[in-house]
Write a structure and sequence with these properties.
Blueprint lengths: L3 H12 L2 E2 H6 L5 H8 L4 E4 L2 E3 L7 H11 L4 E2 L1 H7 L10 E6 L12 E6 L8 E6 L2 E6 L1 H10 L1 H4 L1 H13 L5 H10 L3 H11 L1
Parallel strand pairs: 5-6
Antiparallel strand pairs: 1-3, 2-3, 4-5, 7-8
Amino acid sequence: MESNTERILSLARLQGIVRSRDCIEHQIPTITLTRMVKAGILVHIARGLYTLPNRTITENETIVHLATKYPQGIICLLSALRFYEVGTQAPFEVWFAIPNKARPPVMDYPPLRVIRFSGDALTDGINVHVIDGLNIRITSLARTIVDCFKFRNKIGIDVALESLRECWQNKRVSMDELWHFAEGNRVTKIIRPYLESLI
């Protein structure tokens, strides 16, 4: 029979990150995590999150850290583009949307760029992706492109245009999707000339 330490190591190898609640779900005492950290078998990377030593943290794992603490938040804009592998942007911050009146997250890691959404923006065009066993809310690709036009003063119109052209050329978005989100975001006048130039 596997020891608790071996069971946690198996989880760490399988998932990349072990959460305290994983231990609870597998009926392993959470003190085992503390002992493994003291023994150098695991590294404590954030509250309730552990991984194997010398393991490179991927971009998706920084998203997982964030979603573990703030499951109601939404990965958006430059971080969503990065997730979908669109454009040349490599943001050092995680672009993260929260409800308009919510308290902003306070975290040492990862660095955050907080955007506020309200109304339909909190639900329309939000996809749920499973990363490391956790449900992560990310704006859809078409929604992300339109959001880039809406927040062009924060990220630059060049980023919005680059993502639009790339996704259109690679047939990753449709005109109907883009127009739907443009109407919802009230940016039809801004985006219309760029959409017309694609046709």
